[in-house]
Design brief:
Layout (H helix, E strand, L loop, with lengths): L12 E2 L7 E4 L26 E3 L8 E4 L2 E6 L8 E2 L4 E2 L26 E6 L5 E2 L3 E6 L5 H15 L8 E5 L15 H10 L10 E4 L19 E3 L7 H20 L5 E4 L4 E6 L10 H14 L3 E4 L9 H5 L5 H20 L10 H5 L5 H8 L8 E5 L9 E5 L5 H10 L4 E6 L12 E5 L2 H6 L6 E2 L10 H16 L6 H5 L15
Parallel strand pairs: 10-11, 10-12, 12-13, 15-16, 15-19, 16-18, 17-18, 19-20, 20-21
Antiparallel strand pairs: 1-2, 2-3, 3-6, 4-5, 5-7, 8-9, 8-14
Helix pairs in contact: 1-3, 2-9, 4-11
The protein binds calcium ion (CA).
Calcium ion (CA) binds next to strand 15 and helix 9.
Length: 513
């Protein structure tokens, strides 16, 4: 086991599993050739931070093991102390989806965690928001500029009268027209838009701005029973841009009045719907940030909350570890169904899962998607998998859910919002300013060097686990408490303090016309 002692400049590595024959270099900026570890191992070459060194000699074709799992085979003979970079590892095939073990190792349900609460906005349907936001839906991109204009006026002229409302957000996107609206896969973007409007942070106050000739009829975005909540720009009664914008403002004003009556109240942590994501991952993701998040996810599940992990291409290569954890055979089969669907989707586009790893991932020490996946699934913690959502489906059950989404940060964020996420925790190794307008995002750095350099963008430094300042359990508890604080509006994450938010990005696997 690599030592995780207090900060020191002496050479350090982390080996996670007794079976591992590689370990990752911990020291900031890497270690030069000739560096000697406390165990006596000497580096035969410079190894960048987060990159792997061989702990033993590994013959060509022999397995390279990290997290106790095979991440590839040696492309050439390797000696102890070599830098095991991407070119020296042959990536294995993805695990076949037929014959996976299903529900064979369902973790025991951990004891309930009681007494943890947050201050949230309870809605009529029982859901609880962490923010009080007016969300304005759109049925087509054509109206986006108009709505942006209207929102500037709403912020300037209306919001000051409603101090209990946090913000107004336009749910704009590129869908709605010029698309094969009846194609089977069109169900994904349409369902996403329908469910986005119902996100608990919007308090059930739905309105839609549409054009009038688009394929996605605005009424399709209204919940059942609501009919007079559409502004249609081509409406004969609306003469000119000024009248159109005024109509949007009038409709928004009525909803702001209702939202302004919302007050935070003490709610059990069980009312939280937390999304987990990673982006700009590095080799520390699976060592610091994701294990801390996994521990926090277990605490949330024990407290009765809904916790979603996602990103199909980052679980596909570790699916054999997840199907075993499925609470029921049906849930296990649903996991396999989502993997199969995505395999076919990628194949149709002439791509495979190797398209996932980015140049930044590789620079950060992740050789391939197998290594990235093993580090990624750690954030799901150790609870039984209690449900599976197809992309954009609304979560209706508690516990740990797999919400199938692409790994793309913005698309995953948008789909988790549609599934009802009211707060997201986002781990990053390389660093990203990522944020969402509709729900707060807590950004967790995998390395202290990043947390220091981006002190006004990163909310939580999990690098303290690698330096020995805290244990995974301590980091997990601290993160859990931060989640409760941010959900309560007591602490604002950096992306909200700066007001930097990414666009919504729909997942549209159907053809564009
Ligand atoms: Ca991502």
């Amino acid at each position: 086991m690599g030592k995780m002692d207090a900060i020191t400049d002496s050479p350090r590595y982390i080996r996670l599993n007794a079976r591992d024959n590689v370990a990752i270099v911990v020291n900031d900026f890497g270690l030069p050739k000739g560096s000697r570890f406390p165990c006596g191992l000497e580096l035969r070459a410079f190894v960048p931070q987060g990159h792997k060194t061989a702990l033993t000699d590994i013959a060509e074709g022999e397995p390279i093991i990290r997290y106790g799992e095979v991440i590839g085979t040696a492309a050439m003979p390797l000696q102890a102390g070599d830098w095991v970079d991407e070119a020296r590892i042959v990536m294995p095939e993805a695990p076949p989806l037929d014959g996976l073990e299903i529900s064979t190792a369902v973790p025991a349900v951990q004891p309930p965690l009681e007494g943890f609460t947050f201050e949230g906005f309870r809605n009529a349907d029982g859901s609880v928001g962490t923010r009080n936001i007016l969300g304005i839906s759109t049925s087509v991109q054509c109206v986006a500029g108009t709505l942006d204009h209207a929102i500037k006026r709403i912020r300037a002229e209306l919001l000051p009268h409603y101090p209990n409302v946090d913000d107004v957000v336009g749910l704009t996107h590129t869908y709605g027209c010029g698309v094969a609206i009846n194609a089977p896969d069109a169900v994904v973007p349409i369902r996403t838009l329908q469910n986005l409007a119902l996100n608990p942070n919007f308090g059930g106050e739905v309105m839609v701005v549409g054009l009038g000739c688009e394929k996605l009829v605005p009424e399709r975005l209204l919940p059942e029973g609501l009919s007079d909540a559409v502004v249609r720009m081509q409406d004969q009664a609306l003469e000119g841009f000024g009248a159109i914008v005024d109509t949007i403002l009038t409709m928004a004003d009525a909803r702001l009045k209702v939202l302004d009556r919302r007050r935070r109240e003490t709610c059990p942590a069980a009312d939280l719907v937390i999304g987990l994501q990673c982006g700009g991952s590095d080799a520390f993701s699976g060592v610091t940030a994701n294990p801390a998040l996994g521990f926090a996810a277990d605490l949330l599940v024990r407290a009765g909350a809904t916790v979603m992990f996602s990103e199909v291409t980052e679980v596909r290569d570790a699916i054999q570890l997840l199907t075993r954890r499925a609470a029921t055979a049906e849930i296990g089969r649903a996991l396999v169904r989502e993997m199969e669907w995505y395999d076919a989707y990628l194949a149709r586009g002439g791509a495979d899962r190797s398209a996932n790893t980015t140049p930044g991932n590789k620079k950060g020490g992740l050789a391939n998607i197998v290594e990235k996946s093993l580090g990624s699934i750690v954030k799901s913690g150790s609870s039984p998998i209690a449900g599976v959502l197809a992309p954009g489906e609304k979560a209706r059950t508690k516990g740990l859910l797999f919400a199938a989404t692409p790994a793309s940060d913005f698309i995953c964020g948008t789909l988790q919002l549609a599934s009802g996420m009211t707060l997201q925790v986002f781990t990053t190794g390389r660093g990203t300013p990522y944020g969402l307008a509709a729900a707060p995002v807590i950004k967790v750095a995998t390395r202290s060097e990043l947390a220091r350099r981006w002190h006004d963008l990163i909310d939580f430094d999990a690098g303290r686990i690698a330096t020995g300042e805290m244990t995974i359990e301590e980091a997990g508890w601290e993160l859990f408490r931060l989640i409760l604080d941010v959900a309560s509006g007591r602490t604002k994450p950096w992306s909200d303090r700066w007001g930097i938010h990414n666009d919504l990005a729909l997942f549209n696997p159907a053809p564009v016309t």
